[in-house]
């Protein structure tokens, strides 16, 4: 009996799984859907696209499509990439530790884009559908998405829109702070650009029932684990490590 159920479940999974992409929200638009609108932010662009621009690879979601696919296959809807530069090098790596959250162009633009895309979608669609927004972000993308929700770099929180944020999963975000209910993974140390306790506490109390901020112990950025190869490998692999946990956490919410 159990075995039969298992086979049926596998068969159902096989027919219903359709991998989805996350094209850019600027080019593909954000149609109103009664399913989920997944907005996903990539991590730092290692191919060094010019700063201040949306590089041609901003749709490269480093595995987050798998989470989007699971949610969209259940709930309907679609996924879009957050158009932002995800700049490496000077703008992020070097300036960030000294300038912290004050003037990081790539992240700044990402926050602006994220907040305006969510507000525009909700305001345009709430009279026809129940807007259900899912946010995903890896590395710099997780840092951007955290600030989209809780503010930073001169931007306010998204407090007035929080009821439309149905869920989210962030991976290896440098602004991770350890030991809060919103955290996933096993890091007991905070990130290189950890948020302050007041804003992180707001993040955790407001969103921990529907969002997980994943960080593995030893991660180069989110756990400030150091810059050895092992730390870098943990960081690079973070979406792979936690995407199934994220899917299991988010599926009941959609
Ligand atoms: C985009 O990403 C792909 C695969 O990650 C890489 O091969 C390619 O060189 C990148 N293109 C640019 C213009 O950076
Ligand atoms: C943390 O979790 C990862 C992934 O499950 C595991 O491989 C690693 O051994 C754990 N590390 C510690 C210090 O518990």
TrEMBL record:
It comes from Zasmidium cellare (Wine cellar mold). Coiled coil: none annotated. Keywords: Disulfide bond, Hydrolase, Signal. It holds the Pfam family Cutinase. The keyword Phosphoprotein does not apply. This is Cutinase. Residues 1-19 form the signal peptide. PANTHER family: CUTINASE 4, CUTINASE RV1984C-RELATED-RELATED. InterPro entries: AB_hydrolase_fold, Cutinase/axe.
């Amino acid at each position: 009996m159990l075995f039969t159920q298992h086979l049926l479940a596998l068969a159902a999974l096989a027919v219903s799984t359709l991998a989805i992409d996350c094209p850019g929200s600027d080019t593909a638009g954000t149609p109103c859907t009664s399913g989920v609108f997944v907005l996903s932010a990539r991590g730092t662009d290692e191919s060094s696209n010019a700063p201040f621009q949306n590089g041609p690879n901003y749709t490269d979601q480093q595995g987050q499509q798998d989470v989007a696919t699971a949610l969209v296959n259940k709930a309907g809807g679609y996924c879009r990439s957050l158009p932002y530069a995800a700049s490496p090098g000077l703008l992020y790596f070097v300036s960030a530790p000294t300038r912290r959250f004050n003037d990081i162009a790539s992240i700044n633009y990402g926050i602006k884009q994220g907040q305006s895309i969510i507000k525009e979608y909700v305001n345009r669609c709430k009279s026809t559908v129940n807007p259900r927004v899912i946010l995903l972000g890896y590395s710099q993308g997780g840092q951007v998405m955290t600030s989209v929700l809780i503010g930073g770099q001169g931007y306010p929180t998204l407090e007035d829109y929080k009821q439309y944020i149905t869920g989210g999963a962030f991976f290896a975000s440098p602004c991770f702070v350890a030991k809060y209910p919103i955290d996933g993974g096993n890091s007991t140390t905070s990130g290189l650009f950890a948020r302050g306790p007041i804003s992180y506490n707001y993040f955790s109390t407001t969103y921990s029932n529907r969002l997980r901020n994943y960080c593995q112990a030893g991660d180069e950025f989110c756990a400030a684990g150091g810059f050895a190869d092992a730390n870098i490998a943990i960081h690079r692999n973070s979406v792979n490590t936690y995407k199934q946990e994220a899917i299991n956490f988010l599926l009941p919410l959609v």
